[in-house]
Amino acid sequence: MLTVFIDESGTLPDAKDEFIVICGVVVNELKEAKNIFSRILRSLKQRKVNIKEIKFYHSGQNTKRQFLSGIASVNFKVFALVIDKKNRKIIDSPENFAILVADLIGDIIKWYKNGNINFIIDRHFHRKTDQNEFNKLVEIEIKKSSEYSIKDVDSQKNFLVNVADMAAGAILWKYRGKDAQFYELIKENIVAEKVVSWPEIKRKSIKKIT
Fold this sequence. Notes:
The chain is an alpha/beta fold. The protein has one domain: Ribonuclease H-like superfamily/Ribonuclease H (Nucleotidyltransferase, domain 5, 2-Layer Sandwich). It has seven helices and six strands. A six-stranded mixed β-sheet has the order 5-4-1-2-3-6, sandwiched between helices.
């Protein structure tokens, strides 16, 4: 069974965030992801750097490069959905976030066709009611099959999901025009990099439901 870690970079409600990236990283062997983290943690310990989580926006330049180089070296496959918000302030609701995640998951399912896939999503909502609503809406959008499973996790407890955070952060920085060096490290691993506007993806979802 393939494991796909999913996380986002950027925010829906902040109008200053022109783009938001939802990223899925396909992992064949979980031990390879664990090895990347082990190497990073040893490096941080040697440099006497103490952080709770290894996330793109909390990490230094060296850690970013080391982590993303690790993703590239083990040939993890990266799927990215880049949403151009068109300068909108979008409500961060279970419905809106589910539209984005379901679109990405749908693309990954089409790519791997009938493969068994375990989707692990970094928990986006803190309230249990929002989590449940989000999970339900994702399953409705993609017509859940027994061939794959979907669950959300706390990244402080399941740190492996942060491979998707690192990839999403690198891709977002490219679109912000901030720094493309990190994107370049994983460029060859990117299987799909779809750019859509918020109005376009919203209309697509409405048509699917109706």
